[in-house]
Please model this.
Amino acid sequence: MVKNMLVDLDSLIKDTHAAYNVFGKYYDLMYAAQGRKAGIYRPDVADAFTDVISSTGSKFILDCACGTGDPIIGVALKLFASQSEHMRIIASDASDEMIVKCKNNAIEEGLGEKHSDNFESLSLEITRSCWEELPEKFGSNRFDMVMCVGHGFFHLISREKMISALRSMTEVLKPGGYVVFDVKRWDKNDDLHQEKGVEPVKWRNWVQDGDKRLMFLSTSTWFDDQRAVDGVIQLKNFYVLEEGLLGLQTNARCLFWGAPFRATTALELAFDAGLTDVQELILNMPSEKNEAYLRDNVTIIGKKP
Model:
Protein backbone atom coordinates (compact mmCIF):
# COMPACT_ATOMS: atom_id res chain seq x y z
CA MET A 1 0.00 0.00 0.00
CA VAL A 2 1.34 3.45 -0.90
CA LYS A 3 0.21 6.50 1.06
CA ASN A 4 1.23 10.11 1.52
CA MET A 5 3.28 11.14 4.53
CA LEU A 6 2.57 14.34 6.46
CA VAL A 7 4.31 13.69 9.80
CA ASP A 8 7.42 15.60 10.90
CA LEU A 9 10.51 13.50 10.04
CA ASP A 10 12.19 14.16 13.39
CA SER A 11 9.25 12.51 15.13
CA LEU A 12 9.69 9.40 12.98
CA ILE A 13 13.35 9.19 13.95
CA LYS A 14 12.37 9.54 17.61
CA ASP A 15 9.80 6.75 17.17
CA THR A 16 12.51 4.52 15.76
CA HIS A 17 14.94 5.38 18.54
CA ALA A 18 12.26 4.51 21.11
CA ALA A 19 11.53 1.28 19.24
CA TYR A 20 15.15 0.13 19.53
CA ASN A 21 15.06 0.79 23.27
CA VAL A 22 12.07 -1.56 23.51
CA PHE A 23 13.13 -4.11 20.90
CA GLY A 24 16.76 -4.30 22.02
CA LYS A 25 16.20 -7.20 24.41
CA TYR A 26 14.46 -9.19 21.65
CA TYR A 27 16.83 -8.27 18.79
CA ASP A 28 19.23 -11.22 18.99
CA LEU A 29 16.37 -13.61 19.73
CA MET A 30 14.58 -12.64 16.53
CA TYR A 31 17.70 -13.22 14.45
CA ALA A 32 18.12 -16.61 16.11
CA ALA A 33 14.46 -17.44 15.37
CA GLN A 34 15.03 -16.68 11.69
CA GLY A 35 18.22 -18.72 11.57
CA ARG A 36 20.15 -15.65 10.42
CA LYS A 37 22.73 -15.97 13.18
CA ALA A 38 23.24 -18.70 15.71
CA GLY A 39 25.10 -16.64 18.28
CA ILE A 40 25.91 -13.08 19.24
CA TYR A 41 27.55 -12.21 15.93
CA ARG A 42 27.80 -13.68 12.43
CA PRO A 43 31.33 -15.10 11.99
CA ASP A 44 31.25 -14.69 8.20
CA VAL A 45 30.43 -10.98 8.43
CA ALA A 46 32.97 -10.44 11.24
CA ASP A 47 35.65 -12.15 9.12
CA ALA A 48 34.84 -9.92 6.15
CA PHE A 49 35.07 -6.66 8.08
CA THR A 50 38.20 -7.84 9.89
CA ASP A 51 39.78 -8.31 6.46
CA VAL A 52 38.76 -4.76 5.49
CA ILE A 53 40.29 -3.31 8.66
CA SER A 54 43.51 -5.29 8.27
CA SER A 55 43.88 -4.50 4.56
CA THR A 56 43.67 -0.74 5.24
CA GLY A 57 46.15 -0.90 8.12
CA SER A 58 43.59 0.63 10.49
CA LYS A 59 44.45 0.39 14.20
CA PHE A 60 41.95 2.68 15.96
CA ILE A 61 38.37 1.75 15.02
CA LEU A 62 34.97 3.26 15.86
CA ASP A 63 31.76 1.35 15.19
CA CYS A 64 29.20 4.15 15.52
CA ALA A 65 26.07 1.98 15.16
CA CYS A 66 27.10 -1.14 17.06
CA GLY A 67 23.64 -2.39 18.05
CA THR A 68 23.97 -5.54 20.16
CA GLY A 69 27.54 -6.14 18.95
CA ASP A 70 27.19 -7.76 15.54
CA PRO A 71 29.74 -7.77 13.94
CA ILE A 72 32.06 -5.62 16.10
CA ILE A 73 32.33 -8.20 18.90
CA GLY A 74 33.45 -10.81 16.38
CA VAL A 75 35.85 -8.29 14.83
CA ALA A 76 37.35 -7.48 18.25
CA LEU A 77 37.82 -11.16 19.08
CA LYS A 78 39.70 -11.75 15.84
CA LEU A 79 41.83 -8.61 15.84
CA PHE A 80 42.88 -8.82 19.47
CA ALA A 81 43.73 -12.51 19.15
CA SER A 82 46.45 -11.63 16.65
CA GLN A 83 47.62 -8.08 17.42
CA SER A 84 46.10 -6.85 20.68
CA GLU A 85 48.98 -4.53 21.56
CA HIS A 86 48.36 -2.44 18.45
CA MET A 87 44.54 -2.29 18.26
CA ARG A 88 41.91 -0.13 19.91
CA ILE A 89 38.18 -0.46 19.23
CA ILE A 90 35.28 1.68 20.44
CA ALA A 91 31.64 0.70 19.86
CA SER A 92 28.83 3.24 20.22
CA ASP A 93 25.10 3.38 19.60
CA ALA A 94 22.29 5.87 20.23
CA SER A 95 20.09 3.29 21.99
CA ASP A 96 20.62 2.66 25.70
CA GLU A 97 19.05 -0.81 25.49
CA MET A 98 21.24 -1.84 22.57
CA ILE A 99 24.31 -0.68 24.48
CA VAL A 100 23.26 -2.77 27.50
CA LYS A 101 22.86 -5.82 25.25
CA CYS A 102 26.18 -5.14 23.53
CA LYS A 103 27.99 -5.00 26.88
CA ASN A 104 26.32 -8.21 28.07
CA ASN A 105 27.20 -9.92 24.80
CA ALA A 106 30.82 -8.78 25.06
CA ILE A 107 31.00 -10.20 28.59
CA GLU A 108 29.50 -13.48 27.38
CA GLU A 109 32.19 -13.69 24.69
CA GLY A 110 34.96 -13.03 27.22
CA LEU A 111 35.78 -9.51 26.06
CA GLY A 112 35.04 -7.81 29.37
CA GLU A 113 33.75 -8.00 32.92
CA LYS A 114 31.06 -6.22 34.88
CA HIS A 115 32.14 -4.43 38.03
CA SER A 116 29.18 -2.87 39.85
CA ASP A 117 27.30 -1.05 37.07
CA ASN A 118 30.37 -0.55 34.87
CA PHE A 119 31.57 -2.59 31.92
CA GLU A 120 35.35 -2.93 31.88
CA SER A 121 37.39 -4.32 29.01
CA LEU A 122 40.94 -4.04 27.70
CA SER A 123 39.72 -5.02 24.23
CA LEU A 124 36.56 -3.07 23.54
CA GLU A 125 35.15 0.21 24.85
CA ILE A 126 31.34 0.46 24.61
CA THR A 127 29.57 3.79 25.03
CA ARG A 128 26.35 5.57 24.10
CA SER A 129 26.49 8.22 21.41
CA CYS A 130 24.39 9.37 18.47
CA TRP A 131 25.94 10.49 15.19
CA GLU A 132 25.69 14.23 15.74
CA GLU A 133 27.53 13.86 19.06
CA LEU A 134 30.58 12.05 17.64
CA PRO A 135 32.91 15.08 17.24
CA GLU A 136 32.03 16.43 20.69
CA LYS A 137 32.42 13.03 22.36
CA PHE A 138 35.55 11.78 20.60
CA GLY A 139 37.22 14.87 19.14
CA SER A 140 38.54 15.48 15.63
CA ASN A 141 41.15 13.54 13.64
CA ARG A 142 41.34 10.49 15.92
CA PHE A 143 40.23 7.27 14.22
CA ASP A 144 41.68 5.27 11.34
CA MET A 145 38.26 3.88 10.44
CA VAL A 146 34.64 4.60 11.33
CA MET A 147 32.16 1.79 10.64
CA CYS A 148 28.39 2.03 10.36
CA VAL A 149 27.16 -1.50 9.62
CA GLY A 150 23.49 -2.44 9.51
CA HIS A 151 20.29 -0.42 9.14
CA GLY A 152 21.40 2.84 10.72
CA PHE A 153 21.44 5.02 7.61
CA PHE A 154 18.10 3.69 6.50
CA HIS A 155 16.49 5.16 9.62
CA LEU A 156 17.77 8.71 9.01
CA ILE A 157 15.26 9.06 6.13
CA SER A 158 16.39 12.34 4.52
CA ARG A 159 19.43 13.05 2.36
CA GLU A 160 20.35 15.99 4.61
CA LYS A 161 20.43 13.90 7.79
CA MET A 162 22.41 11.13 6.09
CA ILE A 163 25.03 13.57 4.81
CA SER A 164 25.20 15.23 8.24
CA ALA A 165 25.84 11.86 9.88
CA LEU A 166 28.58 11.05 7.36
CA ARG A 167 30.22 14.41 8.02
CA SER A 168 30.25 13.70 11.76
CA MET A 169 31.92 10.36 11.07
CA THR A 170 34.45 12.05 8.78
CA GLU A 171 35.23 14.72 11.37
CA VAL A 172 36.46 12.16 13.93
CA LEU A 173 38.69 10.44 11.33
CA LYS A 174 42.37 11.16 10.86
CA PRO A 175 43.20 12.51 7.38
CA GLY A 176 43.44 9.47 5.12
CA GLY A 177 41.09 7.48 7.38
CA TYR A 178 38.12 5.49 6.10
CA VAL A 179 34.36 5.58 6.52
CA VAL A 180 32.73 2.20 5.85
CA PHE A 181 28.95 1.89 5.87
CA ASP A 182 26.47 -0.53 4.48
CA VAL A 183 22.82 -0.36 3.55
CA LYS A 184 20.21 -2.73 2.27
CA ARG A 185 20.45 -3.48 -1.46
CA TRP A 186 17.30 -2.07 -3.07
CA ASP A 187 18.67 -2.03 -6.61
CA LYS A 188 16.97 -5.32 -7.42
CA ASN A 189 13.61 -3.53 -7.27
CA ASP A 190 12.57 -1.09 -9.98
CA ASP A 191 10.04 0.25 -7.50
CA LEU A 192 11.19 1.19 -3.98
CA HIS A 193 7.64 0.54 -2.72
CA GLN A 194 8.43 -3.13 -2.35
CA GLU A 195 10.85 -5.52 -0.75
CA LYS A 196 11.82 -9.06 -1.62
CA GLY A 197 9.99 -11.62 0.50
CA VAL A 198 7.64 -9.18 2.23
CA GLU A 199 4.02 -10.22 2.61
CA PRO A 200 1.23 -8.11 4.21
CA VAL A 201 2.08 -9.95 7.43
CA LYS A 202 5.51 -11.60 7.53
CA TRP A 203 6.01 -14.55 9.88
CA ARG A 204 9.51 -14.35 11.37
CA ASN A 205 9.36 -17.63 13.28
CA TRP A 206 9.57 -18.45 16.98
CA VAL A 207 12.30 -19.10 19.56
CA GLN A 208 12.45 -20.59 23.02
CA ASP A 209 13.55 -18.01 25.58
CA GLY A 210 13.99 -19.81 28.89
CA ASP A 211 10.54 -21.08 29.84
CA LYS A 212 8.81 -18.78 27.33
CA ARG A 213 8.12 -19.23 23.64
CA LEU A 214 8.37 -15.98 21.70
CA MET A 215 7.06 -15.38 18.19
CA PHE A 216 7.90 -12.58 15.78
CA LEU A 217 5.76 -10.93 13.08
CA SER A 218 6.24 -7.84 10.96
CA THR A 219 4.21 -5.74 8.53
CA SER A 220 5.39 -3.15 5.99
CA THR A 221 3.80 0.00 4.59
CA TRP A 222 5.26 2.55 2.14
CA PHE A 223 4.65 6.30 1.85
CA ASP A 224 5.45 8.68 -0.98
CA ASP A 225 7.41 11.62 0.43
CA GLN A 226 9.88 13.84 -1.41
CA ARG A 227 11.63 14.65 1.87
CA ALA A 228 13.00 11.10 1.84
CA VAL A 229 16.38 10.44 0.25
CA ASP A 230 14.84 8.71 -2.80
CA GLY A 231 11.22 9.79 -2.34
CA VAL A 232 9.88 6.81 -0.36
CA ILE A 233 9.46 6.19 3.37
CA GLN A 234 8.88 2.72 4.80
CA LEU A 235 7.18 1.85 8.08
CA LYS A 236 7.94 -1.57 9.47
CA ASN A 237 5.90 -2.76 12.46
CA PHE A 238 7.52 -5.52 14.51
CA TYR A 239 5.40 -7.55 16.92
CA VAL A 240 6.77 -9.74 19.70
CA LEU A 241 4.22 -12.31 20.86
CA GLU A 242 4.48 -14.64 23.86
CA GLU A 243 2.69 -17.97 23.95
CA GLY A 244 0.84 -18.66 27.21
CA LEU A 245 -1.97 -20.73 28.65
CA LEU A 246 -4.53 -18.25 27.35
CA GLY A 247 -3.01 -18.04 23.87
CA LEU A 248 -0.76 -15.34 22.44
CA GLN A 249 -0.19 -12.00 24.10
CA THR A 250 1.64 -9.02 22.63
CA ASN A 251 4.83 -8.26 24.53
CA ALA A 252 5.94 -5.45 22.25
CA ARG A 253 4.96 -3.53 19.13
CA CYS A 254 7.76 -1.43 17.66
CA LEU A 255 7.61 1.10 14.81
CA PHE A 256 10.73 1.34 12.67
CA TRP A 257 10.76 4.12 10.06
CA GLY A 258 13.28 4.34 7.26
CA ALA A 259 13.89 5.35 3.66
CA PRO A 260 15.00 2.80 1.04
CA PHE A 261 17.61 3.99 -1.42
CA ARG A 262 19.81 2.53 -4.13
CA ALA A 263 23.56 1.93 -4.30
CA THR A 264 24.01 4.88 -6.67
CA THR A 265 22.41 7.13 -4.05
CA ALA A 266 24.68 5.71 -1.32
CA LEU A 267 27.72 6.60 -3.43
CA GLU A 268 26.37 10.12 -4.02
CA LEU A 269 25.84 10.62 -0.28
CA ALA A 270 29.45 9.71 0.47
CA PHE A 271 30.75 12.10 -2.21
CA ASP A 272 28.45 14.89 -1.02
CA ALA A 273 29.75 14.44 2.54
CA GLY A 274 33.27 15.21 1.29
CA LEU A 275 34.74 11.71 1.13
CA THR A 276 37.11 10.80 -1.68
CA ASP A 277 37.97 7.49 -3.41
CA VAL A 278 34.36 6.44 -2.82
CA GLN A 279 33.42 3.01 -4.14
CA GLU A 280 31.29 -0.02 -3.48
CA LEU A 281 33.29 -2.49 -1.43
CA ILE A 282 32.99 -6.18 -2.29
CA LEU A 283 33.40 -8.07 0.97
CA ASN A 284 35.31 -11.32 1.00
CA MET A 285 32.54 -13.86 1.51
CA PRO A 286 33.21 -16.93 -0.62
CA SER A 287 30.58 -19.44 0.49
CA GLU A 288 27.05 -19.64 -0.90
CA LYS A 289 25.57 -18.67 2.46
CA ASN A 290 27.78 -15.62 2.71
CA GLU A 291 26.96 -14.53 -0.83
CA ALA A 292 23.40 -13.92 0.38
CA TYR A 293 24.82 -11.01 2.42
CA LEU A 294 26.32 -9.53 -0.74
CA ARG A 295 23.02 -9.91 -2.59
CA ASP A 296 21.10 -8.15 0.17
CA ASN A 297 23.58 -5.46 1.25
CA VAL A 298 25.65 -2.69 -0.33
CA THR A 299 28.89 -1.74 1.44
CA ILE A 300 30.43 1.67 0.68
CA ILE A 301 33.95 2.84 1.55
CA GLY A 302 35.33 6.38 1.29
CA LYS A 303 38.40 8.23 2.45
CA LYS A 304 38.87 11.47 4.37
CA PRO A 305 41.03 13.85 2.28
Remarks:
- The longest strand covers residues 212-224.
- The mean pLDDT is 90.
